[in-house]
Amino acid sequence: DVKVTQSSRYLVKRTGEKVFLECVQDMDHENMFWYRQDPGLGLRLIYFSYDVKMKEKGDIPEGYSVSREKKERFSLILESASTNQTSMYLCASSLDRGRDGYTFGSGTRLTVV
Amino acid sequence: GQQLNQSPQSMFIQEGEDVSMNCTSSSIFNTWLWYKQDPGEGPVLLIALYKAGELTSNGRLTAQFGITRKDSFLNISASIPSDVGIYFCAGSFGNTGKLIFGQGTTLQVKP
Q: Cα(B86)–Cα(A6) distance, rounded to whole angstroms?
């Protein structure tokens, strides 16, 4: 089975901190995605990547950046955390262009205080 | 941007009842997917649909790809307590690789 592993299940950070969320997948998938999940809003795409060192903005990229130095790892960076970035963050990967869906990690619940 | 409207937002049902939820889009999709998210976990794929009119089952779950390609529904028959969770529809279009997700339907089942 494909595994997508997110490094932390829960994080508490202070406003203004730089925050790194790490995601690793073990099945050689080309495509990786970062979503945030908020009640009533579903899953919203932050950034995605189709290849190493490649990144594209999703629907809500403001306040975030990403890094993909290796195929298996996709990092989400909050440059200066703010309270409105308190959310559940989900990483996903896929082999194709979404036709067979994504495999998600278990999520990181981030609280910014 | 594209949006998916998923309804209902939440459901509270008795064990054994059937459940129905649906998604509608303002645009045509090539693929419809249904996911379930258990509490504290990431979403897991339940059913994938690739053709207009397609009807696919997975155990007690049945999903259909609407004829207009702008909607899809998911039915759960004879619900059980482990059906509890959030159900998401998702659609993809073209070859972008991006999925658009609905807002989710939270299902609670009373034993």
A: 20
For B38-86, write each residue's pLDDT tens digit.
Answer: 988 999 999 999 999 999 999 999 999 999 999 999 999 999 999 999 9
Residue B48 in contact with residue B72, Cβ under 8 Å? Answer: no
pLDDT tops 80 at residue A32: yes
Cβ contact B101–A40 (<8 Å): no
Q: Which of A42, A50, A101 sits opposite B103 (nearest CB)?
A: A42
Interface test with chain B among A23, A34, A36, A37, by most B beta carbons within 10 Å: A37
At B10-22, the pLDDT tens digits run 999 999 999 999 9
Nearest CB to A106; choose among B33, B42, B90: B42
Residue B79: partners with Cβ closer than 8 Å, 6 or more residues away: B13, B15, B16, B17, B18, B19, B60, B107, B109
A92/B98 Cβ within 8 A: no
